[in-house]
Structures are given as C-alpha cells and as structure tokens.
Amino acid sequence: MKIVNITGSPRKKGTSIRIANSFIDSLKDKGVETNTYHLNQMNFKGCQGCDICKQKSETCIQKDDLSIVLSDIFNADIAVFSSPVYYGDVTGQFKSFFDRTWSFVGADYRSSRVPSGKKAVLILTQADVESVHLDVVDRYTKFLTSYGFEIEIIRATGCGMEKNADVSYEITKASEIAQKIGL
Ligand SMILES: Cc1cc2nc3c(=O)[nH]c(=O)nc-3n(C[C@H](O)[C@H](O)[C@H](O)COP(=O)(O)O)c2cc1C
Q1: Which residues of 28-39 are buried (b: 16+ CB within 10 A; e: fewer)?
Q2: In whole angstroms, what is the distance from residue 147 CA to residue 115 CA?
Q3: 33-55: per-residue pLDDT in tens?
Q4: pTM for the full model?
Q5: Residues ≥6 apart with Cβ < 8 Å to 7
Q6: Which of 42, 52, 105, 160 has the fewest Cβ atoms surrounding its Cβ within 10 A?
Q7: Nearest to 81, CA basis, from 5, 9, 133, 12
C-alpha cells in the first residue's frame, strides 16, 4: 500500500501535522510506503492558467517540486491532505498546491483523471469553534469527491497557536481511521 502525505502547515509540530503523523505512524508496521511532502519547504508556483493540461497534455507541464507530488497522488492508495485554516481557508501553501490539481480535471472540464478507488484523509485544524469555517470542509470535500476520492474528514477546532494544543481526540481518531482504511 502506498500513502502520500501532503502537509499545508509551516509548523512541523503543529496540530495538523501531528494528526497526520498519527495516521501515518499507525500504519508503520503494516508494510506501507509513505511519501511525505511538507509544502512549506518546497519550491513551486501556483497554477499558471495556461490550460495546456486541457489542450495538449494530460499532466501539468510546470516542472518543479510539485511534479512528483502530483504524480505520487496518482500512484498512491491513500492521500492525506492536512492544513490549518488561515483567514477562512487553507494555508496559501496548500491553496497553491491545490490549484495545481487543475491538471487532474479532464479536457472536458468535468471528468477526473485520477484513477478510481483511492481514499483521501482531509485534516483541517482551526482556532475558532466548530460552527465556523464549515465552508472550508465543504469546499475541499466537494473538490476531492469530484476527483473520485472516498473521503474521511478529521477536523480539530478550538486549537490556538500555542505549542502542544490538545488534539488528543483527533490523534486517536486518525489512528482509528488508519486501522479502518489502511489495511
Ligand atoms: C496567519 C494565520 C491565520 C489564521 N486564521 C485563522 C482563521 O481564519 N480561523 C481560525 O479559526 N483560525 C485561524 N488561525 C489559527 C490556526 O488555524 C490554528 O491555530 C491551527 O490549529 C494551526 O494549525 P497548525 O498548528 O497545524 O499550524 C490562523 C493562524 C494564522 C497563523
């Protein structure tokens, strides 16, 4: 089994990455191959809107650090996407990455090029209470579903920027989801 783990937080010890790590660590002994990409450490541009991925190419023609990430998603059984909410959406790093998945959309601007049968785990964390930023969950659920992913959502709310914000519940949930879908 292959997992691709894409993190959108600049904070490697922050809430979202700790939850993602819990998912990955729970499958460590199961012969799983994991490729982790910390977007904040990578050099890439957002989508240039050239639309060549609709006219002439099935993949994004930009060659940068994201090229391997995009192709790894096609090769993985499970994709883990994590990001804190920044100003009412995912982080800029994650948004720029996500825009590049435009190449996942077929030439008809509707179909998905992502091979079917994949699962995604969407991890979102925020300082605000649960009723706020539900639109973020809905938006990325909708996009990932349109690509054909079967999605599990882990959402941690009320997590401030303090070190060691308590996400023990979500860490356990990530481990349980890993046991459920990762075997
Ligand atoms: C630039 C910035 C913008 C933020 N904007 C929001 C926001 O709009 N809503 C919210 O609930 N939390 C917001 N937060 C708080 C983070 O989403 C929250 O602390 C999150 O748990 C941090 O995740 P991390 O530890 O994985 O980096 C913001 C934090 C930063 C640094």
Answers
A1: eeeebebeebeb
A2: 9
A3: 999 999 999 999 999 999 999 99
A4: 0.98
A5: 16, 17, 20, 36, 37, 38, 39, 40, 82, 83
A6: 160
A7: 5
* Residue 122 buriedness (CB in 10 A; 0-12 / 13-18 / 19+): buried
The sign of the torsion formed by the CA atoms of 77, 84, 167, 137 equals negative
Residue of minimum CA distance from atom 6 in ligand 1: 86
C-beta of 125 in contact with ligand 1 (< 6 A): yes
Domains of the chain: 2-181 (3.40.50.360)
pLDDT of amino acid 182: 84
How far does the centroid of ligand 1 lie from the alpha carbon of residue 137, in Å? Answer: 14
Mean pLDDT (10-residue bins), the chain, 183 residues: 97 98 93 96 98 97 98 97 98 98 97 98 98 98 98 98 95 96 81
State if residue 14 touches ligand 1 by the CB under 6 angstroms criterion.
yes
Tell me, letter by letter, the H, E, C secondary structure of 34-81: EEEEEHHHCCCCCCCCCCHHHHCCCCCCCCCCHHHHHHHHHHCCEEEE
Q: What pLDDT is stored for residue 183 in this prediction? A: 67
